[in-house]
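Quick check before the chapter quiz. The format below is the same one you will see on the exam, so make sure you can read both the input and the output lines.
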Amino acid sequence: MRFLSVLVLIAGAAVGVFYPWAMSNFSGHAIGIYRVYEGGRFRPATVQLSVSDAPLRVLVDLTARAERVASQQRTVLTLTAASGGRTVLASTLSFNHTDNPRQVSPQLPDKIFRDEAGVIERVAPGAYVFNVGPGDADGIDMRAVDLILRAGTGSIDKRAKPTGYVLMGVGLLGLVLSLVFGRGGGRPQNPNSQPPPPRWGRGGSLR
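Here is the expected output.
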């Protein structure tokens, strides 16, 4: 039971955690990375896209002090994408769900947080303008903001995360139960079920 529980726990982690992360960061191919904030100034990024770039995943990397980002619950950045005067994507980014931000340098307190702005399912050929701006979060000491575009990315099944979390819960529960009942948790042995020791002869007790 313990081995089976470990397998279920690993399968749940693969489905609920690793699969969405891998699809977001590695599926498809990178179009480019565009610096949209630096030196206290935001600037739009204009990118030429084609039909073959769909679906297009839009990611944002924020370089900032870690404690400021992790402790807030408000919107840090906003993002809009438009083509031909029509908005095709609008998103708010908080970055506070990032578990493992990347470290810029061991000597610096800044870290790089990544958040997903969304996916543009259909891409018309032409210029797309991406505008990133500040949200309503206070005290975020931003160093840089980068826009990352990945073309031809696979879509993440919305059932993956809840299914994975359920499997992880089942596996963890089974592992705990196997540990509890595996430590002599069975019924105590009945002393009357064993034959009485001999009362005479070798090894016996003569009364």
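If your answer matched, good. Residues 10 and 168 are 7 Å apart (CA to CA).
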